[in-house]
Amino acid sequence: MTQAESNNITLAPAVSTRRRFLLQAAGAATGSTILALATVSTAECEPAPVAFTASPSPDPIFALIARHRAEEQAYGEALVARDELQENLPEEIRRRPRVQLGMKDGEPYFLHTHKQIDARLEWIPDFVSTPEIRARLHKELARDMNEVWAKRDEHGITAAEDLVGELCDSCQELEWALANTMPTSIAGVAALLRYANECEDQGEEWPDTDTIGPDGWHYQLRQTAARALEGLLGDARA
Fold first, then answer.
1. Residues 143-173: pLDDT tens digits?
2. What is the pLDDT of residues 47-58, one digit of tens each?
3. Which DSSP helix (H) or strand (E) runs through 99?
4. Could you give the CA distance from residue 95 to residue 112 in angstroms, rounded to a whole number?
5. Are 68 and 185 in contact (CB under 8 A)?
6. Are the beta carbons of 166 and 71 closer than 8 angstroms?
């Protein structure tokens, strides 16, 4: 065997070894590049997680709860003020307007409304004087009503009762608004449901509590909360 052949024989493995090394290095580099590109591509293509954030505008349910809470407090205070006022009124002012029809069981027998006068006289024999009696009773009752109401106005009881009525109506309007106002956040839904229980824990009642079906307050509250959750969770998955 010649020296050249010997060199060829000994160099061949070296060349092959270097080639394998270079190929492996190139392959590793190529693989790293592909992996890096794949990683970048995956990161760029993968959608970013949707952050469940609050609505840009404040959730209206919180302001509505605050309004109802304040109105309920005002209503309770108005009731207490009216009751205290009535307790300090003379009996002559606290009594109902009335007109005496006659005696019953040794006591004066009073009628308190014009409707009572007409209904009671239907049972009295049709004397010639019945129309005059009826007219007199209506006139005396009207006079007594005016006198009692004037005295109640002077003592502030009429204004106190009017305020109680207005606040009662306002509270009921807000209660229906609570049942039908859509919260715009998960926190708002939770606050609404929690507030509903809070009021009941304090002994308060919601309107039409005993009504079953779509006309009931609790039915509409649950329906509103369910729709709000559906919308919020749907937006989060979009």
1. 999 999 999 899 999 999 999 999 999 999 9
2. 333 334 445 689
3. strand 99-104
4. 10
5. no
6. no
Q: Which two tokens stand for residue 127?
A: 């004397």
Q: What sign does the dihedral 187-193-194-198 (CA atoms) show? A: positive
Q: Give the integer Cα–Cα distance in Å for 102 and 193.
A: 57
Residue 167, amino acid: L
DSSP for 43-95, please give it.
Answer: HHHSPPPPP----SSPPHHHHHHHHHHHHHHHHHHHHHHHHHHHHTS-HHHHS
For residues 92 and 29, what is the distance between their CA atoms, to the nearest angstrom? 106
Between CA 50 and CA 166 the distance in angstroms is: 47
Nearest to 109 by CA among 128, 151, 137, 82: 137
Give the CA-trace dihedral at 205, 210, 212, 215, to 10 degrees: -60
Whole-angstrom Cα distance, residue 162 to residue 160?
Answer: 5
Does the pTM surpass 0.70? The reply is: no
Amino acid type, 70: A
Q: Under DSSP, is residue 97 helix (H, G, I), strand (E, B) or coil?
A: coil
